[in-house]
Design a protein that fits this description.
Residues about 1-10 and about 190 have low confidence and may be disordered. This protein is of the alpha+beta class. β5 and β6 (about 215) form a beta hairpin. A 5-stranded antiparallel β-sheet has the order 6-5-11-10-9, with helices on both faces. A 4-stranded antiparallel β-sheet has the order 2-1-4-3, sandwiched between helices. It has a two-stranded antiparallel sheet with strand order 7-8. The radius of gyration is 23 Å and the shape is globular. About 45% of the residues lie in helices and about 20% in strands. It contains 16 helices and 11 strands. It folds into 3 domains: about 10-185, Transcription factor LuxR-like, autoinducer-binding domain (Beta-Lactamase), CATH 3.30.450.80; about 195-310, Beta-Lactamase, CATH 3.30.450; about 315-385, Arc Repressor Mutant, subunit A, CATH 1.10.10.
Length: about 400
Amino acid sequence: MKAILPFSANRVTQPIDDEEFSNLVGDIYDAALDQSLWVSVLEKCVGFVGGCGAALFFKNAATNGGDTYFYTGITPYFRKLYFDQYVMLDPATTGHFFADVEQPIAIEDCISYDEFLETRFYREWARPQGLVDFVSTVLDKSDTNVAMFGVFRHERDGLADEGARRRMALIAPHIRRSVMIGRLIELKHTESTAFEVLDGLSAGIFLVNGDGSVIHANLAGNNMLGNGNLLRSNGGRLTVEDARVAQSMREGFAAADAGDVALGSKAVTLPLTSTTGERYVGHLLPLNSGKRRDTGIGYGAAAALFVRKAALQTPSAPEVIAKTFNLTPTELRVLLAIVEVGGVPEVAAALGIAVTTVKSHLGRLFEKTGVTRQAELVKLVAGYSTPLA
């Protein structure tokens, strides 16, 4: 597969080359089967989006911590320092927890840039590295965890512009699908062929050709077909009752058969609902090149469809509060700090921002929520946290 050379800052504003984008998408999907490829893939994503480094990582609200899965362009010292000391001082953290999946966000989406420059996080962690921005996207989240992919921007790259956001939006669905499939397979390091472990997986996996004909299914997949309440075989071809989903499925199989260029514009994730109302999600992995081709060659398959039960995701109390009162990520961050820490000076110290900045956000919180005292803000948050609310 042809290597993708890093783009210059000027080149990122130029039209996207289909072949180069196709190669990058192919590399992203290869990493689903061989996780040792992720660092190389991240380096290529840095070149595509424009920046100096990148990371696949998670944050945990319960522990105020997190960690990286894979990263490049950041020293181990600063990576460790971030999760040991600065993850909760990062003014973008709240925005990360409440951003929509696959939505590109940068610093200015979470906090005004002038305010960002005043934070301890910028002064003590970002500025020493010459970092000025971080354009990222949520891959998956729960009440307490958020998994993300992001690209760091150096002073020489400038702030994330529309070109960087557009490129992030293009690759985000493919990175998300690759991570999800890799999580389902959980290959790690093994000498066996990737798909020798199919029958041991709880997810249903179907190897299909370009017209959707099922060439092979694992045990869970055959059980799904046998039950007939989610997927069915029509003349040997995989389909579903919902006409729109069935059409997306057919288009995805055909695009996978045509190659990564065709699939690049079709980020195929399929929402599936059984006849009993249970929700599932399908992730399509093309098997037309690279390591993926070696995997499917014994079957002559064009694609692998991974089907798993969708996890129930309900909005957390802070997310409901933010949407109810139209709070910005920074306003929500200050509100939660008032509840957890207390007075204005203590909140300023905990968040690494000026006292005057906290007072300014507190004034807007009073205005938006209709209360006039900090004690009433605490009662408001407590009311949203009880199941009887």
